[in-house]
Write a structure and sequence with these properties.
Layout lengths: L4 E7 L6 H8 L6 E5 L6 H7 L3 E4 L5 H11 L6 E6 L2 E3 L1 H9 L8 E12 L2 E2 L8 E8 L4 E2 L9 E2 L3 E13 L6 H23 L15 H14 L5 H12 L7 H30 L1
Helix pairs in contact: 5-8, 7-8
């Protein structure tokens, strides 16, 4: 059994994804834990087949779900890796993990993985979507879930981090091949983000990370978010979509990927802004 790291995975009706992910990490022989939020499909049977320990917890949002997972599983390895069910580990990343030795990372508290995102079978290569570095591996008991977010989830570690640019996490939500699923999911996400932005204007939320355009990938994202919140509602989706398509070369992606840029970069953000305005009016009454 791998003594270096353990995996935690969040699931909800992931029978289409979970076998793919578990097969990609099985030969690492690492302890694997699943936090499920009430699956009604074959997810739990798949987990049982792979001998994975499962706990159940009602879902509120991703940051709180990860917080519960990190605090309630008995992780005995020095490192923890947190993965989403619609991700998988590529052979190159597998090899890096297989060679990983705790003693070689003295003074390092977190490791960023490089993600390749797919939508309806197409790699989103441009538009700021590659490379994207996600903090996925961290020292057990030191990494934690950022509860100042309502929808986006990120792990945070104090101290030094490194980025693994080679090897990838592949992420593709196969349920999104049905575009109705995508719309319903983003309707829920837009509610969470609109509520979060209202709470930020009331000083009920603050950024955990110090925004820094020259910092690590998450500090840079915090800087960009701070800028985003200052832009005018209704206008900022168009500014962002234009920047994404022109200056980040989204226009060079194929037709399916360009549809993703439109849906995620413009349609979704217009929806969020409309909901923020509606909440503001509601609060004024």
């Amino acid at each position: 059994m791998n003594q270096e790291f353990s995996f935690i995975i969040l699931t909800f009706n992931e029978e289409v994804h979970l076998p793919r992910l578990l097969a990609s990490i099985k030969d690492l022989q690492a302890n694997t834990f699943i936090l499920d939020s009430g699956s009604t499909d074959g997810t739990l049977n798949i987990a049982k087949t792979y001998g994975v320990e499962v706990k159940n917890h009602a879902f509120i949002n991703h940051p709180k779900q990860w917080d519960f997972a990190l605090k309630n599983f008995n992780i005995k390895t020095p490192w923890t890796i947190g993965l989403d069910a619609d991700q998988l580990v590529t052979p190159e990343l597998f090899n890096q993990l297989q060679k990983f030795r705790h003693a070689d990372f003295e003074g390092i508290n977190g490791i960023y993985f490089n993600r390749k995102n797919y939508f309806q079978g197409s790699w989103i290569r441009y538009g700021g979507y590659y490379p994207i570095y996600l903090l996925k591996m961290f020292r057990t008991g030191i990494g934690y879930s950022d509860l100042n977010e309502n929808m986006d989830h990120r792990f945070i570690v104090p101290g030094k981090t490194v980025i693994w640019k080679k090897g990838h996490l592949l992420e593709e939500n196969l349920k999104e091949n049905n575009i109705d699923f995508w719309f319903k999911k983003h309707e829920k996400y837009s509610d969470l983000i609109a509520e979060e932005e209202i709470e930020r204007t009331k000083k009920l939320r603050s950024q955990t990370l110090k925004p820094n355009i020259w910092g690590n990938p998450d500090e840079k994202k915090a800087w960009l978010k701070r800028l985003w919140w200052k832009l005018p509602l209704g206008l900022r989706p168009y500014l962002y979509y234009g920047y994404r398509m022109v200056f980040q070369f989204g226009i060079l992606d194929n037709k399916t990927a360009r549809k993703f840029h439109y849906l995620q970069g413009l349609w979704f953000r217009k929806l969020v802004d409309r909901k923020i305005l509606a909440l503001r009016k509601q609060n004024e009454q």
